[in-house]
Amino acid sequence: MVPSTAEQQYVEEIFTSWFFIGKLGGFNAENLQVQETGVDISYFDYDEDSSERSLLSLMHNMGEVEFKGLWARCWFDLGTTDALALDVLVNTVRQFSEDFVEIRSIYIGGENEDWPTPAENPEAAFPD
Predict the structure, then answer these.
(1) Domain limits of the chain?
(2) Which Pfam families is this protein grouped with (predicted)?
C-alpha cells in the first residue's frame, strides 16, 4: 500500500526537522554536557566555555524529499555533523514506525538500483 499524503508529510517533517537541528549544530557529540552529567541534572550548570571550545558540527544542505511507490529518499550534505545525528534519525524513524506507519527498513547511503539518482548533485531545498 502506497503511503497517503498525510503519511508522506510526516516523513518530510521528520527529515526537515532533523536537518534543521543539524544545521544549527544540535548533533555535536563533542559537547554532550547534560548526557555526560548522568542521572541528577536538577541543578546542572552548563559550561559555556566548554561549549565554545568544541568544534562546529553542522549539516550543510538538504535536497527535496522524494517518494516513489513505497520508497522515500532524501539527499543530505552532512557537513561536519557527528555520527550521533544518524543515531537520532534512526531512533526517530523506528519510533515513527511503531506509532504511525510501518517502516520495514532504512538505508543510509548507497543507491536503489530501481531508482537511480541524478548524475549531478540534487538541487538543495535549503541553500547555505
Answers:
(1) 1-29+54-128
(2) DUF3531
What's the half-sphere exposure (Cβ side, CA atoms, 13 Å) at 96? 20
Which cell numbers hold the place of 103? 517502516
Nearest to 51 by CA among 39, 65, 34: 34
Q: What is the pTM of this model?
A: 0.82
Torsion angles phi and psi, residue 26, rounded to 5: -70, -15
Which of 14-18, 86-90, 120-124 has the least mean pLDDT?
120-124
**Residue 38 region, left (φ>0) first, then alpha (ψ -120 to 50), else beta?**
left
Lowest mean pLDDT among 37-41, 73-77, 113-117: 37-41
Burial class of residue 96, CB neighbours in 10 A (0-12, 13-18, 19+) = middle
